[in-house]
Amino acid sequence: GAVVSQHPSRVICKSGTSVKIECRSLDFQATTMFWYRQFPKQSLMLMATSNEGSKATYEQGVEKDKFLINHASLTLSTLTVTSAHPEDSSFYICSATGTDNTEAFFGQGTRLTVV
Amino acid sequence: AQRVTQPEKLLSVFKGAPVELKCNYSYSGSPELFWYVQYSRQRLQLLLRHISRESIKGFTADLNKGETSFHLKKPFAQEEDSAMYYCALRASGTYKYIFGTGTRLKVLA
Q1: Where are the beta strands (DSSP E) in chain A?
Q2: pLDDT in tens, B33-54
Q3: A104·B49 Cβ contact <8 A
């Protein structure tokens, strides 16, 4: 099956700094990419949907100025957590669908810890 | 509102016993339903989708529109089935997936 790779898998940053998470589709063109946040023992909460070359669509309650999403190419989307705070600590997961949109492929996730 | 409900956080069964993971959904249109599985230390992966009507690893799921359910079943559980299972809904014509809270299945030897 298609592979989606996230990098880094773990990151620790200081409060007030920004951190960038990359999501790459390795062997297919990802027309749409999704960013999720998962709190411990809870479900995946969709943060935003992005299509290549256009602005991301954020879910209600998600601050677009805090969680910057860039989908510059058909194989790469980035999520930047700006001015991170401890409450931003979470597990962030990306997924991508190809042109046929029959299945979403998931990255392995990124564990962000803000200290 | 679109919603997916998985009432059980944890389901423990013995090896060889039947398994049923419950999923109910709320959606006014015609949804697409999926089951995703996450094995220990691995990423989420698609297990099956209702439109395929297939059996994967012995698992089946039937969409019951009357009961708005999409329960996942397997007649004889195996230890390697132990994992986290997520039911998901995708509204027709969109790309968004709505996930349930997940059920952890533990198959005991």
Answers
A1: 4-7, 10-13, 19-25, 32-38, 44-51, 57-58, 67-73, 76-81, 90-97, 104-106, 110-114
A2: 999 999 988 889 999 988 887 8
A3: no
